[in-house]
Fold this protein.
Amino acid sequence: MRTEITVLIPARNGAAFIADAIESVVDQSFPRWRLVISDDASTDATLGIIRRYLSDTRIQLIENSVNAGLAGNWNRCLDQVTTKYFIMVCQDDLLYSTQALQKAYEIMEAQPRVPAVYCDLMLVGANRNPLLARGFHRSGLVDSSKLGRRSILQTRNAFGVALLFRSEAAQGLRYDPRLALAIDVDFSIATAKRQPIYHIPERLIGYRYHGRNQTGVLLERLVQEMTHIAGKHGIPLRPWHRALMTVSGYTTNLARQAVLWYGARAS
């Protein structure tokens, strides 16, 4: 049986949540996957937790003794892709539906020009408790150029979390080490190459909100990163756009803090 999907989990001190991420892959109805976990010199119990799952021959652990940082470890993961498709699952997040890989795979096979598949999200708390469904109000083929520009002007990820990338679309690409808060937006724009992406209007990924989420807190840096991404991909910005980005980012941060507050009370 040929392996079709490489699931990548970059790990760094993820003992609190990484078991959820791994088990969400193991529970998938689609069986033709391999899971590669690249540990970035963790100093907590992460490695011990991962090793509990290595009896499954589809799961591979890469132990790195030197901390390469966010982009460095994500790029180590990219080097492990040997299949037609891949997905990057952050150690805090999880595949929320057991049908997630199956549904994404079927779209990719039916839409050979689509570089990536995205989906709606379920925001979950520290205890995996559902907090809030995030729908993107779209379905099917979506203009990736508009999503890229919207992400920058609204200072938030308008793509969402990628459910599956076509490996061919990401060939030669790397995660930008100059970015931290918007690194996924940059990679989404780069892989799409202005081609339409596909959106499944179902909650197939669980995106975890917890006290260590920092994107909304570091607003000034986020605006700087989005400005860098705009220049990198030839997305024009007017002088007044930076003020708009700051206001939009502040509003997004307020909404994020409200979700965190609700999650703390619901836990």
Notes: DSSP finds eight helices and ten strands in the chain. The domain at 5-266 is CATH 3.90.550.10 (Spore Coat Polysaccharide Biosynthesis Protein SpsA; Chain A). The helical segments are 18-26, 46-51, 69-78, 100-110, 144-154, 183-192, 219-232, 241-266.
